Fold each of these.
Amino acid sequence: MRSGYEMRIADVLRSKGSGVATVVASATVAELIAELAAHNVGALPVIDGERLVGIVSERDVVRRLDAGGPQLLAATVGDIMTTDVTTCSPEDSVADLAAIMTARRFRHLPVVVGGRLAGIVSIGDLVKARIDLLESERAQLQSYIAG
């Protein structure tokens, strides 16, 4: 891994893997909830073939459920998803993206390469990567000092 200021999303994906659970816009909200639970995730990219068309999160479901009641479960993911999706590339800086995610208050960021979904990172993934790097640097410094 690189130093903290140079750590890239590619480093995070190497450690966590690039597998991504997805959902289609025509799925019902009830089906979405089942997928979120099955994969133990808080958000899913919405795809059309291999193209990213949106993202949908637990927060989207809860806010719409409060406004629309239980009939929301029959609505489609396309009805509640966010279509203006911020994405990143494997070469983007972990520190820069963590700052953007914190400032803009979202927790999941799809990774796109050549227009195709290549992974997804959460703010938790970025924090874990930074902690792991700091632990590694600490161990290296201790080893150096101990000589």
Note: The helical segments are 9-16, 29-39, 58-68, 77-80, 94-104, 123-146.
Amino acid sequence: MLQLGKQAPDFQLRNQDGEIIRLRDLRGKKVVIFAFPKAKSINCTRQACAFRDEFPRIDTENAVILGVGVDSLEALREWRQNHNLPYDLLQDADHRMLEKWGAWGVFDVKNLLGFPPVKRSYWIVDENGALIDMHIGVTDKQSVQLALQTLQNAANSHPIAS
């Protein structure tokens, strides 16, 4: 089970272009990770585009964004291109990362419509690899708003040395 203030579990997933992305390789930056049930669906597109629209603000906080879902690499690549998403989308086809991070396992009527049981969620990992925020089961709008609040609070609590 994940705990705030503790090291986030490392993962190794392929991005939309098939390149391996490892959480540990992003040390030195904050990492905003969001989970989405299905690429190209309405609410997931709203969530992804909201992170896109806030990308400049998030980037100024020394942070990167990663989206994680179970879709095919081709679907992730098309979705990223169609919506000009400036960050990587990662494939967790076997949902090991999503399970370990607590975002797998919502079974409801949406599953009958072809949606995988992914809980829309987000996490923020600090520059040293510690988990500083997480919300499992948020709306598309909440995930971006809450992540921005956490990044701004973290920046305010760690003033830059002159």
Note: The chain has one domain: 27-153.
Amino acid sequence: MFLCRTVIQGFTIGWCALMTVSLGFADEGVFLSAPVMIRSSGAGEGPVWHGSLGLLTSGDGDINRLDLRGQASVFRKNAGSNGLLFDRSGRLIVCENKKRRITRTERDGTIAVLADSYGGKRFNQPNDLTVDSKNRIFFSDPQYGERSKMEMRDENGREIEGVYRIDPDGSVTRIIEHEVDRPNGLIITPDDQYLFVADNNNGVGGSRKLWRFDMNADGTVNVGTQKMIHDWGTTRGPDGMKLDQQGRLYVAAGLNQPHLPQETAEQPTAGIYVFSPDGNQIGFAPIPQDETTNCAFGDSDGKSLYVTAGGTLWKLRTKAAGYQIK
């Protein structure tokens, strides 16, 4: 049995005991059903939907597939992946955090390395990625765990956990250097106006905030416009995120059990937080499994939200369809 809370516009209105997950969703019609676990393994991170393949996830060192019939298989063995994304040509872009690089799987199955270094220094752990209307790829590069092999440092020797852009011509540019403590999930709006960045430093005193930056036409961020959307305080911060077709943001974050001393959990908060386009929290879907890491819209109508959490995969229905790259 698990405990969860129901939140409406940021206010806790009640507690419920769960065996599956059973609660009322009265948060402005964001959710239409409770979360249901559909896989107990193989779904640690990086969910992405493909109309023909079904759902891909990163888990157990592999890229795993859940096809349109609900059959599970390994899509790519030993991928060492985290974030996954299909580009407008249907090619799979992968954050290979183990090999510290960004790759693209071509239509013939060959793997092309898009970027593995910047300024002659290897990346840390490429984590998540997004793409804008000009097919420019943006990815985060945090460092979790052991830090002795980090090469990314500025001229003063300060470690860099940044955000980068890969242009269609293959050139790589760092667009965020020290403005974010430890960038994790990120997404750019369909009109290229905003970039949202999850700041998730799970160390003692680390930042656990969701930031928004205005984007410039050249694919850089206007650092002077940095705005905090939400602060998770001392619990687990924001991770992966997705947008629906109404511009609402769905963010995986929180904990149900504390990871002391670095992360507290005074009350269960793990799940999907939903924010309006102007940054107000309008919904929350609790996930009883720690840690809630990411989400992706899928199914034929785009109204199913798939959620990865601690290797498990959950599914719930939403009122609005998710935004898909076209």
Note: Residues 1-26 have pLDDT under 50 and may be disordered.
